[in-house]
Amino acid sequence: METILSQVKLPLKRSLQIAVQGIRIRLGRSLVTISGVALGIAFLMSNVSAQFIKAAIGKERELRQTVKLMETVVRSEVGDFAGKSLSVAVFGTLSGAERSLLERLAAAQLAALKLYGLNVPGAAPAALKGIGQDSHALLVLGNARKCPVALEHLADGLKQKVVIDSLSNRVFPAFVRQGRATALDPGSAAEDQVRREVFFSKATDEQIAKLSHAAEQDRFRTIWIVVISILVTVIGVSNALLMSVTERFREIGTMKCLGALSSFIRRLFLIESALIGFCGSVLGILAGGLLPVIVFGISFDFRSVLLQMNFGLLLASAAGTLVAGTLFAIGAAIYPANIAAGMVPASALRSNI
Amino acid sequence: MDNNSLTALFGDDSTAQKSGYVIRAVEVCKVFALGEHETHALRGATLDVRRGEYISIMGPSGSGKTTLFNMIGGLNKPTSGKVYIDQVDIAQLDPYELAWLRCRKVGYVFQSFNLIQVMSCIENVMLPMAFAGLSSEDAHDKARDILALVGLGDRALHKPAEMSGGQQQRVAIARALANSPDIILADEPTGNLDLKTGEEIIELFARLRDQLGVTIITATHDLKMLKRSDRIVWIEDGRITRVTTPDEMKIKIEEIH
Lengths: 353, 257
Known about the structure:
The structure holds two protein chains of two kinds.
Chain A: H1 12-25, H2 27-78, E1 85-91, H3 96-107, E2 112-117, H4 125-128, E3 137-142, H5 151-154, E4 162-165, H6 173-178, E5 182-183, H7 189-200, H8 205-247, H9 249-257, H10 262-299, H11 302-308, H12 311-341, H13 345-350
Parallel strand pairs in A: 1-2, 1-3, 3-4, 4-5
Chain B: H1 3-10, H2 14-18, E1 21-34, E2 37-50, E3 54-58, H3 65-72, E4 80-85, E5 88-89, H4 95-104, E6 106-109, H5 121-131, H6 136-149, H7 165-176, E7 183-187, H8 195-212, E8 215-219, H9 223-228, E9 231-236, E10 239-244
Helix pairs in contact in B: 5-6, 5-7, 6-7, 7-8
């Protein structure tokens, strides 16, 4: 007998073809298996998605609180809005909270709301002077403070001499002296007080403890759901492949008689399982990722949830779930694949399945 | 197909003619342990098969016929005794070498054809070539030639389900020939076929033996097959009781009109 020169490995492409064929001829069951994987992964993904939505809602709630706070400050400084007019100077870009504030002000019963975008470089100083003319207050918003004109000049002609700057603790000396300047800065002592009064005044220590207890329960539930969904996936795939092995006793035996290596048979099942895992994961991620968004969106507010979602991170975790789902499916296939690979060719042929 | 192209296809057999025995089974015993029971399927069977022989193994079911058959084909290892295929003791081969042996030295033909249903004829024939590491193009050409040899040149792209039993068995024989084996093992190859197609298969085997010099070993109850074979091995209760030629037996086959 000639010596065996090199171990002949079937090209991966061929194994892939045979595995795909295997899925195709057992399409019905493959679909059931895929939906099993999809279910498990959807479970997992909906959980992930829900976490992101919760975070987004939390952010949105915080934003609304900030806006409310800003409005409260504006109201307290300007007084009753009826018949009042406001000037708004915008430097740079608006934050989400500032935009919302402007929307609320626009909806309020103001006599006039005059908006000035001052982020135009090289704008003529003369044009900027006196934008507060005939207004009751000047709001300074945006993330930049570069102005060719001294800020106080913007306030020339204000009826109430109220300048409210949303950024930092900048207080204009002239107005401080008059006692009318207000810094609208999240984090300042004044704001802290308002926040406490508005949101935490009623929360006792007991309630706070209860809240943290609820959070812990929530975390436990999350882990539980993750574990269950992984088990569903792994056991489902493993079961389907075991059935596939018994059903294919004859085919596997024939291939072994024809000289297929055990490693080839093993690879066949692993590839098949990986494909099933991949397809199921994609479906599961789509279903589990989108459904919560839709449900939360309808019950809460689509726009604000979508605006506040961290989509980059969500996509990254979806990709992670995809990899994990595929790996779980491959892991589930190890046992059935070993059974198939370890089959004695003669015994495979004798079975009458 | 003329003899020259066959030689090109299957290599020169002149070297093979030199070594006398292609299979030697010496005192082969096989014990299957079923729970606490021990079943002695073979109790010391000794058999030599010359190269190019056409041998039929006869015996009632449960006689150890299939076990001997599997042993000769390298599908199973004996509990005791030796089986040599081409002077190689198969008990000493590791699983990888056994796969190699099954791939290139032995071709199997099964009673129920065992074609892979989802593959076309030519893909079925190409499968063992893929296991042997042949490139796709070479395998395709060779598979076409072999299909033509068994008379199915025009059916290469059909699926097994679209073919008759006799045609499927021809595909199975073509598949067994894929890697130019020394031995073809056929387990009741005519068992699932009607008389006429069975006869065609028997003729095909005889022709392959004559043209290619392959050794053909069949387990069969088919009288026509027995009549065509060089030797008939009778096996009973795990032992080979006698080895005869068809002439020594009185096989008379009546024509059915």
